[in-house]
């Protein structure tokens, strides 16, 4: 595979074994990005800020991970489908403020900065948006084209089906445990 167009892999804080990063992936501040083993980051993805990707993470094409001044963590086996956006920083649109990156830090105010955390096996459907302060519990799956907020009551090993918060229990957890235990040591709660 040819070299990446937008950054040098050697600049990453850590890059594990068997990592595939698409040629058109853009990582701003690669020195803040930690990537585990067996990770794939597909083309046209943009990443900025402090980001930790655990083992076996997959980020599909066209995703945005914007940690801003906070942090985004994705534990092992978590993933983003195509076109997802994850934000650990945002404007507070209800109040006026100065928070653009062009504004000197001492004059910025009314910005929302909160870490985003994906527990292991959390999956996000295509074109969904994860907002600052969200914690996705183990095994949670998010349906396509949803916006997830910190206030949402998310349940481990469920599927979030709609914007009203409807969730149903995922099936096949025991088989997943058996299969994963054959090649990786991880605690799976159900």
Walk me through this protein's architecture.
The strands form three sheets. Strands 1, 3, 4, 6, 8, 10, 13, 15, 16 and 18 form a ten-stranded parallel β-sheet that branches. The chain contains one helix and 20 strands. The chain has a single domain (9-181), classed as Hexapeptide repeat proteins (UDP N-Acetylglucosamine Acyltransferase, domain 1, 3 Solenoid), CATH 2.160.10.10. It is mostly beta strands.
Gist of the model:
The chain has one helix spanning 173-181, and strands at residues 14-15, 20-21, 26-28, 33-35, 40-41, 46-53, 58-59, 64-74, 79-80, 85-87, 89-91, 111-113, 116-118, 123-124, 129-130, 135-136, 141-142, 147-148, 158-160, 167-169. By secondary structure, the chain is mainly beta.
Percentage of helical residues? Answer: under 10%
Assembly level: single chain
Q: What is the fold named in CATH at topology level?
A: UDP N-Acetylglucosamine Acyltransferase, domain 1
Taken from the alpha-carbon principal axes, the silhouette is globular
Task: Report the span from N to C terminus.
Answer: 39 Å
CATH top level label: Mainly Beta
Give the ordered list of helices and strands.
EEEEEEEEEEEEEEEEEEEEH
**Mean of all residue-level pLDDT scores:** 96
What's the number of structural domains?
Answer: 1
Share of residues in strands? 25-35%
Low-confidence stretches: none
């Amino acid at each position: 595979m040819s070299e990446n167009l937008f950054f040098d892999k050697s600049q990453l804080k850590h890059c594990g074994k068997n990592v595939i990063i698409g040629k058109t992936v853009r990582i701003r501040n690669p020195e803040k990005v930690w990537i585990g083993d067996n990770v794939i980051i597909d083309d046209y993805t943009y990443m900025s800020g402090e980001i930790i990707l655990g083992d076996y993470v997959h980020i599909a094409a066209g995703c945005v991970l914007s940690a801003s001044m906070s942090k985004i963590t994705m534990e092992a086996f978590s993933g983003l489908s195509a076109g997802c956006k994850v934000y650990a920083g945002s404007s507070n649109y209800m109040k006026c403020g100065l928070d653009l990156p062009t504004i000197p830090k001492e004059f910025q105010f009314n910005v929302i900065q909160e870490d985003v955390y994906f527990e292991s096996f959390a999956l996000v459907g295509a074109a969904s948006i994860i907002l600052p302060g969200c914690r996705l519990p183990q095994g949670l799956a998010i349906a396509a084209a949803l916006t997830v907020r910190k206030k949402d009551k998310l349940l481990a090993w469920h599927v979030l089906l709609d914007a009203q918060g409807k969730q149903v229990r995922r099936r096949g957890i025991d088989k997943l445990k058996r299969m994963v235990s054959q090649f990786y040591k991880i605690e799976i709660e159900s």
